[in-house]
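New to this. Please check this protein:
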Amino acid sequence: MAAQKPVKKELILEKVKSVDTYIREIRGYLHEHPELSGKEFETTQFLQAEIAKLGLPITQIPGTGFYAVLDTKRPGKTIGLRTDIDALPIPESEVNLKQKKLHLSQNPGVSHTCGHDGHSAILLGTTKILTEWQDRLTGKIVFIFEEGEETNSGIPAMIEALRPLKIDAIYGNHLKSNLETGKIYIREGAIMAGTGTVAFDIIGRGGHASRPDLSINPVFAAANVLTGISIAWNNQRDITKTLTLGITQVQGGETYNVIPNSVYIGGTVRFFDREEGEKGFALLRKVSEDIARAHNCTVKFRDKMGIAIGPVVNDDALAKFTHKAVNELYPGSVVSDEQYIWYAAETFARYSELAPSIFTFIGIKNDSLGSGAEHHNDQFDIDEDALQYGVGAMVQFVTSL
């Protein structure tokens, strides 16, 4: 299969510089007009209008996600480039860690406090460059705009829509708040956690609190279940493998003198090894049922109980290739320290079902500007100088593969 003809480093850097104003404008507009997962209607219209200006055919999939294809009409690889497009239900602070933000959400209660506006700007900037260079490229490039990454709403339809395209490699990136601007994180193996949902009810029998002996109290059962889970988590699983348990909800009862019928327990599990994640959920189920039974209660596991998305695992060969290629474009910029492995989850994990995949982190931390607040925080902000590194790395990946 024909490979791309390498493009000189100087030419890529020059081209990236030429779209710098454009990607900042795109990011600014998207930041000021955020939309929630599955409701990115105006966002999709805006992005598709930009793609249409480049003359690329667009394929709409169920929901708000879509993809566009640049077909060079020459034999070669089919390469996927992906972004997410949704925002979060978080009211935005007017200031970051130091000063007033350059752009603010105009949609009350909704904000791009994770960086997806920057991801979309990076992909549009890359699309603009590669479309102008299509005469020197081979194969096909698929530009992927995914609905609802924060809620996993768009990924099932996107995976099915892309499957017939027979993609050879898929590249994605995420802005990273604790990584300095100018740094790009590339590493083999798992770099983002898989996630699962803890969701079950302890079922007893309600009654008057004056006669607890006539009821089956799920409150005490739930308390003992939580204690049992904590002890089992520390003593019945492989401590050499990272597996975190965060219990965040205990809900039951409406008033002081009524024993409730049930108590709900909710939370999340994070993992980097899917098999270990499955074992964790099996342990949760067994301990919960055994302890509940000792209290004459039962357990009802809700449909969402279990693994929701696997870890993001970079293909080893593709990661090594990307590390070398990006470091040639930006010498000294690539880092691979374990400290930047992220416990957050990402639907990008599922793209490895289609092809070898690589996910990189683009640093946005700049203390002088005040960027660097945690993702999903109302003070989250990005250093827009970082966007050029995202575009450059993505273009270098395509033109080198």
